[in-house]
């Protein structure tokens, strides 16, 4: 093919400098993610290697945490992390979905934008503020009102062995349940905002199809909208879970900071992140304590990664089905 | 102003109205206006659509034909800020009356949309959806029977009978559109509204749907919005031409296409605008 001037069209166009440098910079941007991820993982592991070597598998499985005798088992902190994160999800999940349904289906148009912004503002509150609120407001309230009531309500629950008593515990205020509640409030905006966006992305055509069949709002929501976006709704929940697992500052305030296995849902406990935050100032360079803390960081990384990977796997199976 | 016969309009400013002789009136619209917020999309539309026949609504984009269609099953209720005035009666009963539950109304007025919208469920569950919703099947066998009959009527049975548990989304576009028609007729409505049902389909799938519409009219009152004048001419017995939110002309399809009474209709069907 030739142009009017007789020049061939093919092969005359030189690759533009801007184009190729754009390409390279995009590759760099993509590579940064991998490099940062890998180097954090590597440094955590290298730093914590001494802990893994000293305690072996006991580092993960041992329940004993005693800085005086230099025995460090991470199981209490891992347990505290998992219990608070999953309890928080259990509380925040239904409320977050409820908010999303309300905002997309029921709420008057004029209120949607202000309410949506209010929810996003909830996510903008610094975690230290949540921590102080949890310590000074929520914890006393829990101790005086909620905990005695729950203890009585669930008195019939048989204990697990003689080491875990569910809701029976002295009303201290701080502990697993208070930490879970604070976490729930913190991840609520993530779950609500993400699931609202997911619901808004449901094609109107699909909803119209259900309405046109004589489905009510509720039937449209439960029978058509939710099945259509189930995967993305799970995504919203796991986003919240990922955040709950790693949250530190607010937890330090309200979890009680007792590195031992919890004997109830109200027991003062510790999470991986809170243990690291509490002990870091005293850990000297080169000490076994520092290695333990870095090792804990590595474990938290693996736990979070594992949870998110599991979520992805579930979603993929869902899509294939 | 149309020269067509006008029947007792409730208001003098009715722009056009007509009665078609064949069959008895299934849907009667009187001075129907639709507003989206402050903006009026439909102006005083009055027309009578007979049962067991196909009525086509044609006109350029934005002329109000889909808006009118959606007011027949009160789908406009689901749009915030949308307001409908005037009277629409099915078998003489005003559907905008306060005592009418739009949910039950929609069970009697099926609807097929521009693009096929099967639910993310199996083929069987798609067709069974409305039957289960409204509790129309007495037993599992009954349900199976309804699903099979509906798929046969929609001309889809032979293509899907071996894979009823496959996802409705796995079908081709034309099959999906027949699936949602089966879904609509499974609950035995009296009226089926079709909003450009073939606009996303290829000519072969379109021909199948048109064939199906022709068969369905023996049992249902079908009201179809279409951009294809050839389609309106092929499938309908009466045609309504809308322009700028007003009903310009309504009459037997043959007359509207061969001998339109309004110059705007003439201009549109001969391709001078639209």
Task: Please characterize this protein's 3D structure.
The complex is a heterodimer of chains A (321) and B (274). By secondary structure, chain A is mostly helical. Chain A has a single domain (55-320), classed as MetI-like fold, CATH 1.10.3720. Chain A is 71% helix and 1% strand. Chain A is built from 11 helices and 2 strands; from the N terminus they run ααββααααααααα. Chain A has a two-stranded antiparallel ribbon. The two termini of chain A are 50 Å apart. The mean pLDDT of chain A is 88. Chain B has 274 residues and is α/β, with parallel strands linked by helices. Chain B has a single domain (16-269), classed as Rossmann fold. Chain B is built from 10 helices and 10 strands. In chain B, the strands form 2 sheets. In chain B, strands 6-7-8-3-9-10 form a 6-stranded mixed beta sheet, sandwiched between helices. Chain B has a 4-stranded antiparallel beta sheet with strand order 2-1-4-5, with helices on one face. The radius of gyration of chain B is 19 Å and the shape is globular. At the A-B interface, helix 7 and helix 8 of A face helix 2, helix 3 and helix 6 of B.
